[in-house]
């Protein structure tokens, strides 16, 4: 079997058929299996899934009674036969060339372990400006280096667009359940273990946003949960890669930046001081950003400035002053 596509679902009667047909209608000639995992649905989606399974030998229907997308996906993974494993949500639609383009990239590049692609955002029912901005940002990341450099800014891989070699799941684990976003944990864990990501140039998925989506309703996807999780992985990285460990400087002296940087303290990281663009915030612990020069500054900088577009401005400024990303600084927002 070349590829297994796993779709967990819960009360997805309005969207499941489109999602399933978008996989069955792929422009791919290899053997594939579509594994649908019902996760305690109370609407008609399980009956619909059973009907669809009866119509196609490529579909396998399973039930997972422990509630949660992690348990449902891992149930599917436990029976998957594919060389490659693809992830998708029950309310999304795969574009016709998704599987063929991702399989082609993995087949031709043995050094690539996992692959993603651009997605088309479709917001419904709600004010979706923040999610649309996230999709546009993630779409601009072109390759592994982009994904790696931006891993602590935000989740750099849109989860339902992911395909990976089975061996990656076997070596570094699948999604884990906890008080954190399971998709971000998986990507950070894989990256920290040296997993190499590729990205196809094409759009691979229509990513549909709604007010009932877990990323909007579950506390595990709140902003602080993301910061707590990435702080853990950041602290581990700093321990082995920063010449100044455990000390850091924080770019951003505002209340929000300080609050998020404080997650570092529980991991043994010490904050030496702050850097800011406003002189009225200066003091014994705060430097004015224009005074920064590589040759006279001793420390590692973490930028927690979260205003839209400002992270990239911080990056450009530090690079222009002779600082090197990864060696001297990282973006955290």
Automatic annotation (TrEMBL):
Keyword terms of this UniProt record: Coiled coil, Glycosyltransferase, Transferase
Coiled coil: 38-65
Pfam families (UniProt xref): Glycos_transf_2
InterPro entries: Glyco_trans_2-like, Glycosyltransf_2, Nucleotide-diphossugar_trans
Glycosyltransferase 2-like domain boundaries: 4-172
Domain of life: Bacteria
Keyword hit for Glycosyltransferase: yes
Stored SUPFAM superfamilies: Nucleotide-diphospho-sugar transferases (SSF53448)
GO MF: glycosyltransferase activity
Similarity field: Belongs to the glycosyltransferase 2 family.
Name of the protein: Glycosyltransferase involved in cell wall biosynthesis
């Amino acid at each position: 079997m070349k590829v297994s596509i796993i779709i967990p679902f819960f009360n997805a009667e309005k969207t499941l058929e489109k999602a399933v047909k978008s996989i069955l209608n792929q422009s791919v000639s290899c053997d594939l299996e579509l594994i649908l995992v019902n996760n305690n649905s109370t609407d008609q989606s399980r009956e619909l899934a059973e009907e669809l399974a009866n119509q196609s030998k490529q579909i396998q229907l399973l039930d997972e009674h422990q509630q949660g997308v992690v348990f449902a996906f891992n149930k599917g993974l436990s029976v998957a036969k594919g060389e490659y494993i693809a992830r998708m949500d029950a309310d999304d639609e795969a574009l016709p060339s998704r599987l063929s383009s991702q399989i082609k990239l993995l087949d031709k590049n043995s050094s690539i372990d996992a692959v993603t692609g651009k997605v088309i955002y479709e917001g419904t029912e709600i004010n979706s400006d923040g999610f649309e901005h996230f999709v546009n940002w993630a779409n601009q990341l072109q390759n592994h280096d982009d994904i790696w450099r931006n891993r602590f800014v935000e989740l750099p891989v849109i989860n339902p667009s992911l395909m990976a070699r089975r061996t990656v799941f076997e070596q570094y684990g699948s999604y884990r359940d906890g008080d954190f976003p399971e998709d971000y944990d998986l990507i950070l864990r894989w990256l920290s273990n040296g997993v190499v990501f590729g990205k196809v140039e094409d759009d691979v998925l229509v990513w549909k946003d709604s007010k009932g989506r877990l990323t909007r309703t579950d506390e595990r996807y709140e902003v602080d949960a993301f910061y707590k999780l990435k702080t853990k992985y950041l602290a581990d990285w700093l321990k082995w890669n920063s010449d100044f460990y455990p000390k850091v400087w924080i770019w951003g002296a505002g209340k929000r930046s300080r609050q998020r940087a404080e997650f570092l303290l529980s991991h043994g990281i010490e904050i030496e001081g702050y850097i800011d663009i406003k002189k009225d915030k200066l003091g014994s612990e705060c430097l004015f950003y224009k005074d920064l020069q590589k040759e006279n500054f001793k420390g590692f900088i973490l930028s927690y400035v979260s205003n839209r577009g400002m992270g990239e401005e911080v990056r450009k400024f530090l690079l222009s002053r002779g600082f090197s990303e990864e060696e001297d600084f990282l973006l955290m927002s």
